[in-house]
Amino acid sequence: YSQAGTPLVKVSSSYNSETHSFTLKF
To answer: Model pTM greater than 0.70?
Structure first.
């Protein structure tokens, strides 16, 4: 999506080195 100004949605990203998985939480 595209939004003007500062995004109101906070995105949290985390990487698990054990399972080699990358997770994005919106």
So the answer is: no
**In this predicted model, what pLDDT tens digit does every residue of 1-26 receive, in sequence order?**
566 776 666 778 888 889 988 888 87
Determine whether 1 is exposed, middle or buried from the number of CB atoms within 10 Å of its CB (0-12, 13-18, 19+): exposed
Structure tokens at 7: 């995004």
Q: DSSP characters for 2-22?
A: --SSS-SPPPEEEEETTTTEE
Task: Report the b/e string of 2-13 with b at 16+ CB within 10 A.
Answer: eeeeeeeeeeee
